[in-house]
Design brief:
Bound molecules: zinc ion
Order of helices and strands: EHEHEEHEEHEHEHEHEEHEEEHEHHHHHH
Low-confidence stretches: 384-404
Mean pLDDT: 92
Structural class: alpha/beta
Strand content: 15-25%
Amino acid sequence: MRYAADLHLHSRHSQAVSPEMTLENIALQARRKGIDVIGTGDCLQLDWLSDLRRHFVPAEPGWFALSPETDDQITASLPPSLRLPLRFVLSTEVSCVPPGRGRFEGIHLLLYFPSFETLLRLRERLAPFGDLREGRPELRLDARRLLGMVLDFGQDCLIAPAHVMNPYFSALGSQLGHRRLEEIFGDLSPHLLAVEMGLTSTPIMCRRVSSLDPFTLFACSDAHSLENLGRECTLLDTEAGYIPLFAALTRGAPDEILGAFKTPVVHARYYLNYCSRCQASFEDLHCPHCRRPLPVGSRDWLERIAARAMPAQPPPAFQMSPPLLALLKALGWKAKEAEVLRRRLLDRLGHERHILTEAGPDRIAEVSGPRLAAAIAARRRSNFPYSESLADEDPPAQLAFTLS
Ligand SMILES: [Zn+2]
Ligand SMILES: [Zn+2]
């Protein structure tokens, strides 16, 4: 089965997340975006957990579907071409803050669970270490110890570092300053599931860092809002179910991990050096306006931690595109017109990822006119060949925008 998986997002129970991130809305939006398998996010949070238990029915082993009553209501509002099966995986992100350290010294990790029973049992073990009322809880545990606990627990629970090169809260982020995964996870490193790239790094960037060599790279949206859902995802070809999905992620074989769909890294806030006061990213390590020293973004930090100037082996396939709505606005459509046109494109052509990566330019032009079709075609051409210059590519002026 070929499918697109987005295995990291947040519910309305996490900090700074849109109240629209309800189960129903997520299920609706996943179809619009072209996601087939989605992480629930926040599954340690009890209100969210009870929502999940109320609305889920078991599907393939370790995967869940919405109950037919709930799902029929949701899909009724979609055009027939978007009424596709959708599966969920129990997932959460946690922030591991070593005892005695401040919350900004936390490292974000992704956890996956094959069943509600295992989730509840591991939840009990984690409860003494943090306040699990928060969707993305802080655990007073260093990351190696959490990995050890998950491994001791067994039961097919899995753990992976999130947005690996983001300057903040990340295993190889500039703010904590680690240069190798082993500095954090020590001898347990080989037991990590895989490595989430995050918006701030591409496969080419990650494959320059030798401590990431053993791991499959995967892409997820880390969505805090419906619009961002599916902006990054991983394309797989496996049997259906939790074990085949994660076994494939562990192995990273190219016939199972078909590639990644990503947002162009240049649009990520923390790719360059971001000034939170002036709310803009800069080439320099000091803000040209307020002169403050800036946190080192992933582009510059990579040059300090990379073992090599180019990947030792070809990186996995990936395609990059901004989300459709962002693309339309960047091309000059006003917000309302852009939304109307997007709906029309989805109705006529299918889901958003299909439009951005596969649909024939003629078909797109028939619905939207030639300007969008040309922009999408140009974006697709720039994805090939996968060259080093890709990561450094300057966005065309009219496409300059930043995604949080
Ligand atoms: Zn995170
Ligand atoms: Zn997150």
